[in-house]
Amino acid sequence: MRTLRVKLVVPGGDTHDAARDAFDELSEIHADQSIFQVNQTQYVGDDSWGFQIRYETEIHTKQEFVQSTSLADIEQVMNRVAPGSFERRVNDTT
Q1: Is this model's pTM higher than 0.90 or not?
Q2: What is the torsion angle, in degrees rounded to the nearest 10, for the CA atoms of residue 56, residue 78, residue 23 and residue 30?
């Protein structure tokens, strides 16, 4: 089983609207390739929010963290974590 997971980790409340918007857009674009989850927690501050990208196979797990609202930047990390099994769909201008 191969699973690519994208988790947005943000503090609770109405903060980080740009990150939430990026998450919503990415989850629509890549709904068939990834599992998306939002994790709101009081233990995350303004300097530690971001996207946790994790790829699991039977023999290994690879993960990276990216703190960006750029769809292209986040997708680049998704591609790096799951090379060969992930289709990029975002232009640098998107």
Answers
A1: no
A2: -80
- Three-state SS for the chain is CCEEEEEEEECCCCCCHHHHHHHHHHHHHCCCCCEEEEEECCCCCCCCCEEEEEEECCCCEEEEEECCCCHHHHHHHHHHHCCCCCCCCCCCCC
If the chain, 94 residues long, is cut into consecutive pieces of 10 residues, what is the mean pLDDT of each piece?
88 85 96 94 85 93 96 96 90 63
CA 47 to CA 10: how far, in whole Å?
Answer: 10
